[in-house]
Amino acid sequence: MLGTVERVNETARGALIVFEGGDGAGKSTQVQAVARALEFQGRTVKRTREPGGTPLAESVRGLVLDPAHAPVDADTEALLFASARADHVNRFIRPAIERGEVVISDRFVDSSVAYQGAARGLGLEHVQELNEWALRGLTPDLTVLLDVDTSVAESRRTDRGLAADRMEGEDRDFHTVVNQAFRDLAAAAPERYLVLAADQPIEVVTDKILDRLAEVLS
């Protein structure tokens, strides 16, 4: 199914749709599925990720996620993510939205709040304030939280057979804190969030996201 979003004309407004969740929640799969569906319905879609999305931000990604650079001070980590986000927003996201395109991002500022604010202990408000200059008022039109149990996500990461980056390689307690932080953020802003159990069939999750996007993009 392709959801209930109707085909659109060239004057459709742009939007920022963000996918959040712990490592192994299935964000990349849903980003691809939703992007294909929206493109079929006539929208211009730009897929991106954080950290990353621009050459500079991708370079920062390589630095901050490389296990060879561990340990990284929590404040330094948060500042690196925020600087990458500033370039991403200014050079990629905001211009695309202004052109009327739909930007779909695999992670955004709430990841910094969950990972550095909660799991690294910097404080949620501190990390949110740190990122204000990077965002300059930009807020996602919809944040999809793919909620998955920490043990299930851990199993998925193992099944992929890929070397874990510095974040994925953290212990179970770290990821448990991250997942709970995402749930708390969603509970505090239900109008912006769509929370879905990530253990449902992929097609079911995709259809539920598209149903919500029919309201957001109308």
TrEMBL record:
Q: Does the keyword NAD apply?
A: no
The EC designation for this entry is: 2.7.4.9
Q: Which reaction does it catalyse?
A: dTMP + ATP = dTDP + ADP
**Domain Thymidylate kinase-like: where?**
19-209
InterPro entries xref list: P-loop_NTPase, Thymidylate_kin-like_dom, Thymidylate_kin_CS, Thymidylate_kinase
Binding residue positions for ATP: 21-28
Question: Which terms are listed as keywords in the entry?
Answer: ATP-binding, Kinase, Nucleotide biosynthesis, Nucleotide-binding, Transferase
In Swiss-Prot or TrEMBL terms, this protein is called Thymidylate kinase
Q: Record the organism.
A: Kocuria atrinae
Native organism taxonomy = Bacteria, Bacillati, Actinomycetota, Actinomycetes, Micrococcales
Q: Which gene encodes it?
A: tmk
